[in-house]
Design brief:
Helix content: 40-55%
Distance between the termini: 26 Å
Largest sheet: 2 strands, parallel
Strand content: 5-15%
Order of helices and strands: HEHEH
Structural class: alpha+beta
Amino acid sequence: SDLAVEAAKKALAAAGRTAADVDMIIVATTTADLTFPATAAIVQRKLGCPVGVAFDVQAVCSGFVYALSVADGFARAA
């Protein structure tokens, strides 16, 4: 979660956004901080994001591609 938080802070700064703008966090990982709560929920708390969707995708090597596909599906449905 520590690496994800730092990456998220940099991404938010580059996009000119704040944690208040985030309504979904998807973390693709094979080494979660804990089984429960999800690492995404830990990242959400550490960033200070409002309550929203936060979940992990644990699909080993293909996790990033799978998480990107899931995020794309949610974005298209919004």
